[in-house]
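$ ./design --mode recover --in tokens.txt
reading tokens...
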């Protein structure tokens, strides 16, 4: 989580907390309508207090605008990857890569559903894959093939050896039997890759 994201969360939580406490005190009659009216009247009559309140209000609006712009810029940066060709700069929408990876993974007969989320940072390209699987699958072997397939596909598309962090999250395992999607012959994950992946233990 970036600094501006943390600052925005802290800012809005503080504002909401203050507003909520004020409303609770008013509802419980700890603050009466007369007290609020007297406070507003005093601020209205005192020039120094009016200037101070006005400065606070302008400051809050300015902070809100800055946080909004930073969060909006960061969101756009995270969804675009750019690199330079001899003829000019190229920008690739990560949504296009997400759709390509999703369609590629969905071709596996063991995968019922898949969702892909790609985030770009200065150091690494983070890929999060969420899967819904059939029941008769070898999870360590299948996830290894999915990760390798996604990695190879991204590197082939963008033509760069960018550092990749590919994580797989299995949200559900259905009771459906694995069925071949393109032919009548069932193909095991090991047959697709040609490599038998050993089970390396469970990790949190």
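writing sequence...
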């Amino acid at each position: 989580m970036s600094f501006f994201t943390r600052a925005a969360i802290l800012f809005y939580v503080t504002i909401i907390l203050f507003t909520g406490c004020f409303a609770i005190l008013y509802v419980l009659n700890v603050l009466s309508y007369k007290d609020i009216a007297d406070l507003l009247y005093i601020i209205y009559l005192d020039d120094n207090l009016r200037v101070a309140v006005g400065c606070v209000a302008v400051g809050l609006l300015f902070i809100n605008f800055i946080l909004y712009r930073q969060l909006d810029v960061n969101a756009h940066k995270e969804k675009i990857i750019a690199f330079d060709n001899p003829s000019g700069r190229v920008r690739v929408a990560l949504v296009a890569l997400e759709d390509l990876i999703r369609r590629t993974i969905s071709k596996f007969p063991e995968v019922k559903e898949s969702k892909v989320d790609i985030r770009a940072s200065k150091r690494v390209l983070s890929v999060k894959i969420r899967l819904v699987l059939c029941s008769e699958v070898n999870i360590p072997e299948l996830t290894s093939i999915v990760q390798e397939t996604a990695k190879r596909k991204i590197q082939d598309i963008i033509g760069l050896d960018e550092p990749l962090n590919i994580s797989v999250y299995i949200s559900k395992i259905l009771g459906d039997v694995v069925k071949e999607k393109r032919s009548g012959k069932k193909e095991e994950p090991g047959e697709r890759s040609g490599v038998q992946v050993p089970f390396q233990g469970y990790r949190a």
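exit 0
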